[in-house]
Amino acid sequence: MELGWVPTVMKSLQSERAVAGSRSRLPLSQTPRKYKTQSQFRVRAPALKDDYRMKSLIQLNVSLGFNVNNPPRAGGPFKIDIAEKGWRDASLYVPDKAEIISEWILAKLLKDKSMDPFTNPILNLRFWTLLSDVISTRGDGPRSSTSWLTQLLNRIPIAPIELTLAAARCLLILWPIAAQKMTTTPSWIALVFFWYLSRIITPTKALGALDTCTLSFFTKLFAAMVGVCSIEAHTPQSQAMIEELHDAGRETLFNLEVLRHNSGIMSNHTLLQALKDISSTNSLRVVLGGIPTIVALYVRSLKKHRNLLFTGVVTEEVKIAGIQFLLSCLLLGDVPGGQIWPTRVALLSLVLEEDLFSATNVDAMQSMKSIVELSLSMLDGTQQDEENTQSAVECLSKIARIDYTLIEPNVPSILSRLLLVSGANQIIFPLLETLLVYHTKTRTINAYLSHSFRAFLPQAQWAIVPGGRDQVYRCCLSAPLVHSIHLAQVSARIGSFLTPGQVLPLVDQIIQTLRNAWLKISGGSIDDASDLGDQSDFTTTFALSARTASAILTSLPLGSIPESAKSEAQRLVGDLNTSIICPVLAKAFKTLSKKKYDAWAFQIVAVATLRLRYALDICNKYNLGDHGHDKLLSKMVRLLKDRTLMSELRLEMFRHLLHRSVPDVVGALLAEFSSINLSPLEVWSGQPNQLDVGDEGPTVLALYHLMVNRWMPFIDSVASGPELEDLIRCILRLCSDPRLRLELSSPKQISAGSLRLQTLGSAHFWELSNIRMALLSHVNEGTRIFEDDVSCISHSTLLPALAVFELLLTFPVESITRALLLELSKRAISADIAITHLCADEIIAPGKACEFLTILRLFIGRVLAHHQVIEQTPEKIYKILKHLVRSREPPFRAPDGEYIAATVSLIELYEHELFRTAQKDDSSSFSRFIKIFPGDTLGPLSAPPANEMRGRAFVRMIESLTAKFLPSNFPEGVRAEMREIYQRHLSALHPSLIELTIEGFPPELELSSRVVLGWSRLLSFGRWLEVSSGGVPSFGIPLSVKVGEMNQTTAPDCLGELKSEIFNILLQELHYAPEAERLTRLGMLVALYISLCREINQSGNIPILIPVKFVEDPCLGQKLLDNYLSSVSTLLSVLDFEHILELVSESLSCAQPPYLDLIGLIRLATILLQEPPKNSLKVMQKFITKSFNIFVTNNAFFIGPIKLRRSVLDFVFLHCSERPATLRQADLASIWSLLFKFLSGAGTHDKHTAKDLFHKIVGTSSCLIRFRRDLVTLTLPHLGAILRQLITVMRRSRAHLGGMQTSIIAGSLPQWINVQEPLGVEEAKALARLLETLQTKSLIRYNSSPTTQKAGSLAKPFSKHAAYVQKAYIDAMNDPLCIIPSEVRKELQPGLYALCGMMNDYSRDAIMVSGLDVGGKVIMRGLWKEYEKQRYVGRG
Asked: How far is it, in rounded angstroms, from Cα 480 to Cα 483?
């Protein structure tokens, strides 16, 4: 591999490169004796007796060391060839061979580094590859590679050797050793960054590790230097790389010496001037993007060295220094334009996270207030930059969380300007929640609501909104301030935190606000409302105020205030109804009826008032009466026909009339539904104020949504029969397009298809008896055409009936009567036959036919699965099966997964019923059925089968028979016919299998997989029929060999399925194999299973092209293998079972990296132990004991890969939970030891906490306590140690700890717990249940149950150890570096109380005196006090 860029970079750095020592530049033959290594000139190989080996060694030394010619002999091999041959020659044994070759390569790289690119060894991949192999190999001699590499690198420097890709792994080993000798000269600095910045090719894992190594050295190198380096690095490739880069930058820019030099204050540092100079060019965006990271690193360094930099109140001085540097950096971006807003948001987030703000800091206060003013100016409506507007809202939200007093004077202005902010709802909601939380804590909800009402008043910016008053209204009514989410939060806080003294003033304010707005609209006047806006502006104010008033008045805490205040509040609301609501509605509808004045304004007012009255009516807190309401209702009914009115108003009128139970409204509502045919793509946003006049589609959707969610019971009770029929037709017309039958609307939109699915999928809908009967009657009539002769059905009459069956797929089967279901299933079969005939006559296209048949067969399958019984004669079942089996013949050749799955599932149901009847001597239909499977059903290898569905039906028949029936239950004649069909298909497939074993598998594996699948099922069929082993050929081992020789990239998906079926063939052939071959076959089985498990662990799944079950499962491949194995494991002989377990145990004892095979071995053992053969108890116990000992003695099983550790704990847990009776006393010692090692502290940790391991450890301990109390009693100290460790790992480190302190905590945690992801509440619940199990009485599980056994617990035996477990909790609570959060402590309390209940007073006093310090005693007293409070003492 040629890298031409390396010499160019070398020349550019030539002037800065340090000059190597003269000794390192001498040829090896001229090197002084003290420089020459012993391994080079003195052979220490007394074990060598062969003259040829001695001659080869001398030749290797001489050729590499003394001879300067290359090659040493003319026409002979080059030195690199000699070195490679000498290294790879295993017969040439030399103790220091690695040292000889390494020294020669390093000297060669150093000596010839200046040669031209064609002869330069640095650019020769062979040198680096050989060096990598040599220094990466672990030697068996007394000297480790680190020791001789250290001596070697003391003589030969590697810094002058430039980096290439092939050298990455070598330098990863050499660099940490050589870096200890390097100095801080600029040449080394340039060299380090040349190595890091020269990554111009795709990064690899080795280079990533080298980057980390280089950055670590760079961090140490610059830790003591004062200055700033401007470094432009490549984008890091991982989060770990980013962290390394940040650490390097922090130790460079803000190390202790730099901070001391500036007394901790960096506001005038040259770094800021350098950033300012860069920002003055065209790199302002780059500077602004890096400022938050720089400030964060600075604050982190300040906190790290705070005790060495500051005196006095350290925390306040850190805040002052941090905020000053932040403000100085913020001034760098104080330029015209909007680029600074994302930086402001990031810096404010940093202030909030690091708690840098102090109200006593005047500069910080002024800066925050200036950001508030800038944010308000951004929200004044004149700015068009949506992104910066969102950033301004985020700034206000951050400042409100930092200190609410900074924005408190501007809250009304903020709320009013937020009304017109569009596209930022998700940003505004957190700000509103922050404001609401503050007023909730200060019990000033009424003040926040007053600010809201003031914000609703007309604003100057309303006049400049494009679109006029209508757009202002729509925008304001869609604002987050009056959104249902925010109003729901307001209602919740009003009901819980509004004080009794605030209720009446708040109600009075609502009345005054609505009255003033109405007077402005209607032409009245008030003294203090002049010059506030015109009529249309106050219309929007009235609508906003009414919507907020609805949320407030319906959530007033009337039940928690004095009775007099409650009566007064109800009176005020009654006055609101009589003085405002009723007059407003009367005048509005009178004006609309006569079409006077401004219709738009009165429509808006009517909408808001109707919504307010409806909210007051349904809250059941106020008795408003119906005075004059009948006349108003009659006007509404007449106005419903006026299509010129706003759709929002018509929607509210329908709601009000339905609420008032006006009978005429049902007819009007159905007229609306039938007036328009909705498009399948019609959608509605869900907001009534977004409905336009003339938008009939969204209006009908809104009305339908209103009816479905609230008024279906009313319609069911009052509608007549014809009206119900019209309603059903309207429902079924919604989204009748079959292309969108499964369409779901987006979260922000409501579609016709989603409404129909919501209706038909609602249990409440199916409880409405009248509507349900009307719907079922419609279904019955719609499918009646299939009762008669289906041969005369036309295409035009077929489609509407098929649409009904498609609709039936959305019905719950339980809601349809049994008689109708059976009738519909018969009609569906008739429709299936009719479609087949129409397709054969080319009247229906094959694609459409497949779609219709899929619908029909899915429906039939649902009906049969629901009733579990097929009420048809065997003759009828045979005809149906014959029709279904032939359904894949032409023209149905196009593959369709859903169609195939539906058909095969239906065939299985009918086959099962036919087999059930055949057991009762009614076997004629069964005999006729099996004869439809000819010998070529599964197809020859040379061509695909004539009917693919017939092959699938045959495979499914075998699977159903072998899994659900016994051959002895069938008559002898039926069994003879089965054996005949077995022999016929066995003979038909035999040539194809011979061809595969001789010529191997072709690249296209579809036909081969089908043949192998058929052979696998035939073998299981023969085993089920108890066919003798004679005459059954064996193909399992040859097929395994042939599939192993295949190219893995040929067809990976089908290859996985093929291997699974070959594994099943090997399993089935055990039934036919002679005794002499059984051991060989068992070994092949184990090897193939492990191989398949390895592929699953690497790829996640083995895709199955011809699945046995049509079920989508992410672990289908593994489950398929396990099902095959478990189906045969119980049929194994004890000797076979013992041999497999011995193979597994021997393989586990010889565990070697990368340990992927160990996962398959453990899973194999798990499955075998779950389904063992009879009389194998002793074999199982022997294997279990040996396995537990292997797990304990080999570190790989508890510190290896996470998948391996998870498999080990799964194995232990499953055995303890499912077969606890097989455990012996020796097993418990190994189990406790293994669990303790899993819970012990580790130096390295996983990236993420594996909480499932904790639950498995807890589950294993719980099973032992509950089921094998007899064995646990003898190992109570071990149990106590496990419980102590479980409590200890519940700790988590305190926030803002230093690196050394965090590492101390991490070192006490197991490898599977990351200190950044501690255990939580669920783990505390599990641990508490485990501790309570100690007091729970249970029965011991024995292999042979004793005659009498009393339930018992470990409470009394464990009482002597309970105090020490309790002490572990106290120590965790008393640890100054750790905490246990309150929610975790709360969940642990039941378990801790159980321990207290076991302890007697003596144990408690003893632990208080001798085992606890002052802090521990305080914690123990508090815990015991809480325990005494909740303890039941038997009184009352």
From this structure: 5
